[in-house]
Design a protein that fits this description.
Blueprint (H helix, E strand, L loop, with lengths): L3 H11 L3 H22 L3 H17 L10 H18 L10 H7 L6 E2 L2 E2 H9 L3 H12 L4 H8 L3 H27 L2
Antiparallel strand pairs: 1-2
Length: 184
């Protein structure tokens, strides 16, 4: 169920009210930006896409129906736009986890099961682009494999294989990390 604030934002944005658009940006901008940074590791590139996505959202707000939650609708648009972008991009640089905190201005947990988040993010960044995208969509964004296959224009078997290989690669990287830690 939508809150009064969400209803105010939705109604105002659908009418083109600048105050409501600013409220949308202030309220949901960090979520959209965080998603952009998870898929696009270059900060400037992620910022550019973040702004492009927000412009798209504002110019297509009349398509929002009250069937979905507002944050779910915004997240879905963001992920779809990012996957479209990545489908047409060849390579991506990596970015340390510290930039996520800096960009979002939020506290980010610094360890996951004893592994520093920047190390874990580095392992994910080292995955091939398609595997990283499939992994993020499936594990982090909780999107079904059939939908990922459609989004990425891949067969469902290819997506399943990419996710499986990404998990195996991450498992190996984590095991190597722990062996190195034990030898210190």
């Amino acid at each position: 169920m939508l809150t009064e604030k969400e209803i105010e934002i939705i109604d105002g944005c659908q009418k083109g009210d600048v105050h409501s658009q600013k409220l949308l940006y202030d309220t949901y901008g960090p979520m959209v930006k965080g998603t952009c940074l998870r898929y696009i590791q270059d900060i400037q590139e992620a910022e550019d896409l973040f702004h492009d996505i927000f412009i798209f959202i504002l110019t297509h707000f009349e398509q929002y129906t009250h069937i979905n939650s507002l944050d779910g609708w915004l997240h879905r648009i963001t992920v779809n736009k990012l996957v479209d972008y990545l489908r047409h991009k060849k390579t991506q640089p990596t970015i340390p986890m510290s930039h996520f905190e800096q960009e979002l201005g939020e506290a980010v947990e610094h360890e996951y099961d004893g592994i520093p988040m920047d190390v874990l993010q580095g392992f994910i960044n080292d995955l091939p682009q398609k595997a990283r995208t499939a992994f993020n969509l499936y594990v982090i964004d909780d999107i079904p494999q059939a939908e990922i296959a459609e989004m990425m224009q891949e067969s469902q078997n290819n997506v399943r294989t990419m996710i499986s290989r990404a998990r195996a690669t991450l498992r190996n990287s984590i095991q190597k990390f722990w062996k190195n830690e034990e030898n210190r």
